[in-house]
Amino acid sequence: EDKVVQSPLSLVVHEGDTVTLNCSYEVTNFRSLLWYKQEKKAPTFLFMLTSSGIEKKSGRLSSILDKKELFSILNITATQTGDSAVYLCAARFTREYGNKLVFGAGTILRVKS
Amino acid sequence: GAGVSQSPRYKVAKRGQDVALRCDPISGHVSLFWYQQALGQGPEFLTYFQNEAQLDKSGLPSDRFFAERPEGSVSTLKIQRTQQEDSAVYLCASSLGTESSYEQYFGPGTRLTVT
Fold first, then answer.
1. With contacts defined as CB-CB under 8 Å, which chain B residues touch A43?
2. pLDDT-derived band of residue B96, with 50, 70 and 90 as boundaries?
3. Domain of residue B62, CATH code
4. Span A66-85, average pLDDT
5. Overall number of domains in chain B
6. For residue B84, what are the domain limits?
7. In terms of CB atoms within 10 Å, which of A45, B16, B79, B84 comes out highest?
8. Which residues of chain A are within 8 Å of residue B45 when distances are taken between CB atoms?
9. Which residues lie across from B11 on neighbouring strands?
């Protein structure tokens, strides 16, 4: 069965801390790994990772994929209260009729001021 | 607006009622997806359209769930004879569908509560 597991389930940190969110996956015909941020409404796209070992960065956020060990991490440096959200990762894989995403349950991040 | 829109944003239905949820994808997006998100869980795949063709409906939980996209743009998810376990947020997402631009853009969702 295709599955994505995220850890930790929830995390509370103080402003300025650095956090690392984990995502492991087991899917057949894997294509890429996506990260989303969800704040009480629509998930918003952060990164799509296709190649192993190549870090993607956007401001204080960065992510990397390890296709050998089947996991990805999302780092957030110098956290701010506005980073509080649920962070979802999803594995994209190919099926007979195209690509599908399977999501993890998410990591709830709360940044305290 | 340029994003995915969904309506209604909130829906309360009595058990046994039929409901229809609408999704307007981003203009020009070929692929459209419906997901069901229960509280505290990630979105779970329901069904996928490429233009007007429903290519994958393997995630629909029962034959009470039906989706259509007759003209390859707006899509409707219909749930017949709603049950309490249908209570969830229903998310719609669209994407260009090309290999190099696969990221899915999500709508705000419809929160369905079945009483």
1. 43, 91, 106
2. confident
3. 2.60.40.10
4. 96
5. 1
6. 5-114
7. B79
8. 100-102
9. B112
